[in-house]
Every structure is written in C-alpha cells, then in structure tokens.
Amino acid sequence: MAFEAPQSLNRSTQLMVPRDSPRHEVSGTPRASRGLFNRWACGREFRVDSLSISQQNLLVNDGPTSVDFVRHDEFLKDDEIPVVDMALFEGDADTSKKSVEQMVNACEEWGYFYLVNHGVELELMEKVETQAYEFFQLSTAEKEKHASHYSLLEKVKRWSEGIILKPAETNLDDYDNQLSPPENNHEFSTVVKEYDDVMKKLAKRIVKLLVVGLGVKAWRFDEFLEGVEATLRWNYQPPCPRPENAMGLSPHTDPYLITLQHDSGIGGLQIYRKGEWLGIPPRADALLVNIGDVFEILTNGKFQSPSHRTVVNKVEGRLSVAHCLAPAKMVTLIPPPELLRSAPNQYKARTYAEYMGARKRQESSNSLEFMKLPTSV
Questions:
Q1: Alpha-carbon distance 114 to 285, whole Å?
Q2: At 295, which helix (H) or strand (E)?
Q3: Model's pTM, two decimal places?
Q4: Which of 145, 186, 291, 377 is deepest in the core (most CB within 10 A)?
Q5: What digits encode the pLDDT tens for the residues 334-352?
Q6: CATH number of the domain encompassing residue 287
Q7: pLDDT by residue (tens digit) across 232-270?
Q8: Terminal Cα distance for the chain, rounded
C-alpha cells in the first residue's frame, strides 16, 4: 500500500517533508527501518490545523534550548542495551538458565532490553503499523471522534499525537467504519485483535520467565496475570521545525507490568541512565522491552522502571507502537514472600486502581516516590 500526502489541505501553511530526506544508519545494527513507514512519512504534509496554539508558536518563535537536549540520532556510545535471544529459551537447560539470568540482569541494571527471535511475525507487525498510519492520516476532526482515546498533546512544546486502545473495552467497529475499505470492513479490528492476542501471550511468557529467574515460584504471579488488561499506545511525532525547543513525549515511567514496542526505525526514544539522557538505536529485528512501575513494585525494587522520553526531528516523522500489560484493577500490588526475605517491602500496598489514581494526582508521572513507604524513601 502506498501512502501519499493529501493534495489539498484546510490551511495554506504546511510543513513539507522532503522525499529525498537523509537516513541515519546505526553502525553495527541491522537496518533500522522496515521501509513502510518511511515511504509514507517522507511524502507527508503535516496539517497545521491539527496543531495547538503553543505548537504553532514554534513555527515562528524561538525559545530556549533545553540544557539536556540530545538529538534524535545521537545514540549510546559506551553502553549497549542488552540483547536477549528468545530462541535460546528453547535450548538445553544450561543455555536456557543463562538466558534467563541475562534477562533478569538487564531488568535490574537497565529496565530495558532488545528481544530478538521473539516469534512475532513481521507481517503482523507491519499490518498493525499500517492501521496506525491510516489513523494518524485522518483529519483532526475524524480523529477527535475518539476523544476518549485520542489526544493531541497541547501543552507547550509537545509535538506529537497519540491514541490509546484497549482491545477488551474499545469499540473497534468505530475504527473499522473509518479506516477499513468497504470490501473488508473489519480489517482494523481483525488486525488489532490478532496482534493483541500474540503480544499478550509473549508478554506473559516474559513475565513468568523473569519471575522464575528471581527465584520465585511462577504460580506466585498467577493473580497478577489473571485477567490482565492490555493497552495499545500508538504515537506519531511529525517533523518539527525546531526540535531543540520541543518534545515528543515528556519524561515518564510506564504504569504497567511490562511494555513491548516497535517503531518506524527513526531514532528519538531516550532513557535516563546514570544522570544523563541516552538515545536508543532502533532495531528492525527486535522488539524493545521495558519494565513498568508495577513490575518494580512487585519485585520490591529489584527491577527498574526506567524514565524515558522521545525527542523530535526536522526531517522525518516517527511512529511508535507499544503493547502494555497491566494487572486487573482490583489486584493488590504486594511482592511475593520470597522477595521480602532479604529486605522489607519498600512500597505501599495498594490495588492497581488505587495506584493509578494516586499517579494521576501527581504533578509528574516520572517517579515512583509517591508509592514508597517512609522508611524506604
């Protein structure tokens, strides 16, 4: 399917993305892009009618550059995010054990790792990306029909739009009617449901492997995985005229157990590590896995829920597709006994719903301090 920019726009002002825009190659890693999104993004005209007033000001006004600004194509130099090979879990007992230990170490030291040979079909990943592209190509008026799920980030310096889908709750038929061709008017819902099923199974398997790797009986986490809810978060960041004055997604941690994501092969995701922001190179052959707040709480701080953000660039749009796994709302977040023998619980015992409520009341979603007990702060 070819994605072309619309020939006529509601406003005369538009940002044009050159078709011959340069690509940044990541040395030593597989080619970052699978190509589909780049063909679409490089022909895209960004509609100014979808910008907030504060975003439009970036088109005409200079502002201060953030002191911690890191370009979208500046990547890790001295450190490398761990790479976990899912295929090795199917090997002999010793190989499997070492692979689990490697994954546990990655969660303790980084909170992030690449997952290769993950078993998710490339065709399925491209299908769900196609649906995301189609959605973000709609007019703002069409997208805002899903106001409870869609958001154009209107705070100063935010340069992105996003949609949140919960396959178990969202009426996917509404999207079918907007996006699917008449001859196949259930394409959107079919793809999203299949993708959710595959990713949910993979995420639950990763969680169980990590739990066992910590020396905890797998059944201890059954209550946290029973009735899990999946959230799909799609974000699109169009090219920005002044990337040093803007932000795609502000620094935050994830309010989930675990997140699995892939993107359009354009750099921009950055994690906060050892006092600085580090760019993560995109990899076409891998899913990027990160630990969320819930897993940090349930491991009593052994796993790290890392702060991360995204930055924008002048030339290429960036799409990210994330599948996030969360426990049922009324499950109480308490680490299993095995993880409380060496140290007392650091976190307040709250249901997931109570945690989410408390998080929303915070000025920032970039810390778990509000969940820590006084003796652990």
A1: 9
A2: helix 293-298
A3: 0.83
A4: 291
A5: 999 999 998 999 999 999 9
A6: 2.60.120.330
A7: 999 999 888 888 888 899 899 999 999 999 999 999 999
A8: 53
